[in-house]
Design goal:
The chain is α/β, with parallel strands linked by helices. It is built from 6 helices and 5 strands; from the N terminus they run αβαβααβαβαβ. Strands 3-5-4 form a 3-stranded parallel β-sheet. A two-stranded parallel ribbon has the order 1-2.
């Protein structure tokens, strides 16, 4: 019956969009900002490749990897976690301008603006990464 049952979390929409797009692996370092996504991915077809050190995560999925993917025309989607939208600009935990930092190394870089849009945002990021000349895309997800 439509409308019955719990409303899906933004993390559930992200996990569903990734699975629907055929994503098989997510490289991650656990932290408060991405724990809901970990929960949503458990039990899915997507393998979580968990690293134990931030340096390993940076090597696999951040600035160096973005530059390499851009130079090699490799589609890659970097999902980063950040503070809640209402906390941005107020010194939130580990707040930094992730979108601005990633922009020169990607085809597109932006932050999601609502939980309801996350499925569409993931689909958009995957589409941009694979369209035309393939390359990296960054999407920052608010907690």
């Amino acid at each position: 019956m439509p409308g019955v049952g719990p409303k899906p979390r933004g993390a559930d929409l992200v996990a569903t969009a990734l699975a629907d797009a055929g994503v098989r692996k997510v490289f991650a370092l656990s932290g408060n900002h991405v724990m809901a996504l970990f929960d949503a991915l458990f039990g899915s077809r997507i393998e979580i490749v968990h690293v134990r050190h931030e340096a390993a995560a940076v090597h696999m999925a951040a600035l160096g990897a973005l530059y390499t993917a851009l130079a090699a025309d490799s589609p890659l989607v970097l999902l980063s976690g950040h503070a809640a939208l209402a906390q941005l600009g107020r010194g939130a935990f580990q707040e930094m301008a992730q979108v601005d930092v990633a922009r020169p190394l990607t085809k597109a870089s932006w932050h999601a603006t609502s939980a309801q849009s996350l499925g569409r945002e993931i689909t958009r990021a995957l589409s941009i990464a694979t369209a035309g000349r393939p390359g990296p895309v960054h999407l920052s997800l608010p907690v």
